[in-house]
Write a structure and sequence with these properties.
This protein is mainly beta and 358 residues long. It has one domain: Methylamine Dehydrogenase, Chain H (7 Propeller), CATH 2.130.10.10. The chain contains four helices and 30 strands.
């Protein structure tokens, strides 16, 4: 009997201690959330409590999701850094600005109405945004925008880049145009480098030249944006109606271009120091059959993004998958580096930032 009473007392005491311990754990978790509310812990890539911080949600890698991008469920397709701020844009003419990639403010009027905004560039003291229906707009601060009266484009403007004191814009049906101020544009004849039915998907400036890529596996280069020369890359990307080179960037003294032979085929990627001679880079172990939508360079790191996939590389040759970009299976459309951070944007209004890129 005595032993039974002692056992009962021990069990009672264990229950009391367990309840007390549970209460302490809840208190610690709540304290962790309060401590994170300042956002400083989030920016360092470290979190406590339930990994939720003010305006952000941390993933298991160095990436942190932005809680309110101001885009709602609309796709964010473009992002650029300039004049100490990020500017992002996408569907329904939506646009937002941020000094740090963490806290975003919606732009009241992008001048695009409900039209899609595809890309933004910074140069010569202003941002220039391009998109559907040949629309363009320019802004000195990223917040107040003025529509371009005549972009010279009748159809969608897919890309814009700045280099050598001028903007070069490109789009559907082999269309190119140049401008020094982003407001007054002059049509450029690309000659036979791109066929009439080809779309020029993206342009990059580096090593004193523009390089443009597009459908049909086409690539062309120009030192002045006016005279273009075909670049032969068919041995890497192929050529034909099913082939498309989606993106090109310049970083760390080299160009990167990415595309695919057809839907469902492994992504094709190549690099070049001069924009003329290209070498294939194998991304298949990381991206598989997923497309590579954009690549950025910053903080001694390349970061590539695509359909629910992100990868990082210090040399551009050896790539490692990022374990948690915070986008889940959603497509990531664009990425930029500025103010010590990478900021990636994509489907469903999603955004995330990282100081390391991995």
């Amino acid at each position: 009997m005595k032993n039974k009473k002692q056992l009962t007392a021990i069990l009672a005491m264990a229950i009391v201690l367990a309840i007390a311990a549970t209460g302490c754990n809840k208190g610690s978790k709540a304290d962790g959330k309060t401590a994170d509310s300042g956002g400083k812990t989030a920016e360092s890539g470290n979190t406590t409590g339930d990994d939720t911080v003010s305006g952000t949600t941390a993933g298991s890698s160095g990436w942190i999701a932005v809680k309110d991008s101001t885009f709602g469920a609309s796709r964010v397709s473009a992002i650029a850094w300039g004049k100490d701020k990020f500017v992002a844009a996408g569907q329904e003419g939506k646009m937002a600005v941020s000094p740090d990639g963490v806290t975003w403010t919606a732009v009241a009027d992008s001048t695009f109405g409900a039209s899609y905004i595809g890309e933004i560039a910074w140069g010569n003291g202003r941002f220039v945004a391009v998109g559907a229906e040949g629309k363009m707009a320019a802004s000195a601060d990223g917040t107040t925008w003025a529509a371009v009266a005549d972009s010279t484009f009748d159809f969608s403007v897919q890309s814009i880049a700045f280099g050598s004191g001028r903007f070069i814009a490109a789009g559907d049906y082999n269309k190119l145009a140049a401008s020094t101020d982003g407001t007054t544009w002059t049509a450029v004849d690309a000659g036979e480098t791109f066929g009439f039915n080809d779309s020029i998907n993206q342009i990059a400036w580096g090593n004193n030249r523009f390089v443009a890529v597009g459908t049909g596996g086409k690539m062309a280069a120009s030192t002045d944006g006016a005279n273009w020369t075909d670049v032969e890359v068919s041995e890497i990307f192929g050529r034909g109606t099913e082939v498309s080179i989606f993106t090109i960037i310049h970083g760390n003294n080299r160009f990167f271009a990415a595309g695919a032979e057809d839907l469902g085929a492994p992504a094709k990627t190549a690099t070049s120091t001069n924009g003329a001679a290209w070498t294939e880079v194998d991304f298949s172990s990381v991206f598989g059959t997923g497309s590579i939508n954009a690549i950025a360079w910053g903080n001694n790191m390349f970061v590539a993004v695509g359909d629910g996939i992100m990868a990082a590389s210090t040399d551009g040759t050896n790539w490692t998958a990022v374990p948690d970009s915070t986008f889940g299976a959603s497509s990531i459309h664009a990425i930029a580096f500025g103010n010590g951070k990478f900021v990636a944007v994509g489907a469903e209004g999603k955004m995330a930032y990282s100081t390391t890129g991995k």
